[in-house]
Design goal:
Blueprint (H helix, E strand, L loop, with lengths): L1 H44 L11 H4 L4 E6 L12 H22 L3 E5 L11 H14 L7 E5 L2 H4 L7 H10 L5 E4 L2 E4 L12 H16 L15 E3 L7 E3 L5 E4 L12 E7 L4 E7 L3 H23 L5 H14 L1
Parallel strand pairs: 1-2, 2-3, 6-8
Antiparallel strand pairs: 1-9, 4-5, 7-8, 9-10
């Protein structure tokens, strides 16, 4: 009878140890997933602040507009997009965008081209699926404006561009070329059609710009027949800056996709009708996430080896070493 009770006690103790190990493994996995897939976006984007314009808006009676500028999201399509790559990249962009909306509270968001990776050759069904995924990732409250500009991956390069692809894009995204808010005018340009070779689509794009210039009472001798104080463009995947002949700065908005950069970023702009200030907000390094997962995996392996007796517990090893040092 005593042997039976002893055997039952050992079996019960072994079951408790296994349950405790499973609990520890589950807690570690949950904590790592919570940090790498949720908390890291808040920790990184929380460090971003809206830049201040030189002339305070409240002092001049002007209202400051807070705008986010991002580009090159490159949502993968049905041809080149592996399902695992899609799942990972789109989850990263969704968490980054939704976290930025919640923390930074922008009033308007501009996405400057190359929204999709295969828009230039996607089928009708593939296009519809890409649009559905885009609307899920970049969902936003009604009080936040979202303005999208076409890129070469959306409608094709100059020699691939067609009226059908442009109309398909404009059917989903508002085709307005002039957007004004708080006294600030934004001209949304299809730069793919600015080849200047007199093609039908190029002539139409130039005609639209001339109409806008008439609305804004600008001179044809000025840059693009307008007089911008700042030009923002996509496609280069970086944040380089160049100056045009009229001294107008052009800033290339960096890529928002982890497929193009290890730590993507976007531009934050504080703007008034007379002044503007820009700042760059970085997103989490992918290397940080990968290293965290590798360290967590190594820790889980050590836990299982210690539990199975194949590896001495570091605490027990340290205690025995300390006792041995004291006895000597």
């Amino acid at each position: 009878m005593g042997l039976v009770r002893l055997g039952f006690g050992r079996q019960h103790l072994c079951l408790l140890k296994r349950s405790f190990l499973l609990l520890k493994l589950t807690a570690v996995v949950f904590a790592v997933l919570l940090f790498c897939e949720f908390l890291i976006y808040y920790l990184v984007i929380f460090q971003c602040d809206w830049p201040e314009v030189k002339t305070a808006a409240h002092g001049s009676g002007q209202k400051t507009l807070k705008a986010m500028f991002l580009a090159d999201t490159h949502l993968l399509g049905e041809v080149r997009g592996h399902w695992l790559d899609k799942l990972r990249r789109e989850w990263q962009m969704e968490r980054a965008f939704q976290t930025a909306l919640w923390l930074l509270q922008p009033e308007v968001v501009f996405i400057l081209g190359d929204i999709f990776d295969e828009g230039k050759w996607s089928s009708s069904q593939g296009w519809a699926d890409d649009v559905r995924r885009f609307q899920k990732i970049f969902r936003h409250p009604q009080h936040v404006q979202l303005k999208v500009v076409a890129g070469n991956h959306d409608i094709g390069f100059h020699y691939q561009m067609s009226t059908y692809k442009i109309k398909r894009f404009e059917k989903v995204f508002n085709p307005e070329r002039l957007f004004s808010w708080k006294g600030i005018n934004f001209v949304l340009v299809n730069s793919v059609a600015l080849e200047g070779d007199g093609c039908h689509l190029c002539s139409e794009a130039e005609r639209e710009l001339i109409e806008i210039s008439h609305k804004l009472n600008c001179s044809r001798e000025l840059l693009w027949w307008l007089r911008p104080r700042l030009i923002l463009s996509g496609h280069t995947h970086s944040a380089c800056e160049v100056l045009h002949g009229a001294g107008v700065p052009e800033i290339s908005v960096p890529s928002f996709s982890w497929r193009n950069r290890n730590n993507p970023s976007f531009i934050m702009g504080s703007m008034t009708p007379t002044e503007y200030a820009l700042a760059k907000c970085y997103l989490p390094y992918e290397d940080t996430v990968l290293v965290t997962y590798c360290v967590a995996a190594g820790f889980l392996v050590v836990l299982m080896l210690v539990h199975s007796g194949l590896l001495v517990s570091p605490f027990l090893f340290g205690w025995n070493l300390l006792r041995k040092f004291k006895t000597t």
